[in-house]
Amino acid sequence: MSKIYLIAGLGADTRVYNNIDLHEHDVTPVDWIEPNEGDTLGTYAQSIIHQYNISNNSIIIGNSLGGMIAVEIAKLIPVKKVILISSIKTINEAPWYFSLFRALPVYKLIPGKWFTSLGFLIKPLFGHMSEEDAWLFSDMLKNTSPVFVKWAMGAVLHWKNETIPPNLYHITGNKDLIFSYKRIHDASIVADGTHIMIFDKAKEINKLLKHILKK
Length: 215
What we know:
Elements lengths: L2 E5 L18 E5 L10 H12 L6 E5 L1 H12 L4 E5 L11 H7 L8 H4 L3 H8 L4 H12 L3 H12 L10 E6 L14 E3 L6 H4 L1 H13 L1
Parallel strand pairs: 1-2, 1-3, 3-4, 4-5, 5-6
């Protein structure tokens, strides 16, 4: 049985996978580690591999930012499968505003701790959430390291990957306001799926994951 590693998105932790059914598998949640100042997503992925002793033939599932790091892991070691949920796999799928914030890096002027306390501003972009999911979202954001958030924003904006690793599977929603499905190629599309569909569209995602993991 292959080991499955779960990587969360920016401002989140692996509780985003609470509704994902992987009980038949050997699952390891990946907690964020503090980055070095000069880390790229690629060098950070190498640190994750080392920290968690991720070996060949593993399965990596990444949500949002976690999907981008999953891609970088799959470029470094031959994984069995890499599965992206609400993410992008190359710079060609990145939204237009990446270029804007690279040219005008206003995020550098904002203290990191502000990002973890502005959930009420970010939440509308992620889509409608139940009261329980909204509480979890806010709690994850509050408990995220401000240093990590500030670093990750810069690393994501300067990600230039054009390589699609083998055995990659992509799941995205057609109502995602962060990463538009119209820019994403070769993905399974979840109807009415928002950026946080891993919460409220878990039933559909579980069906897709079950099919992918059986391949």
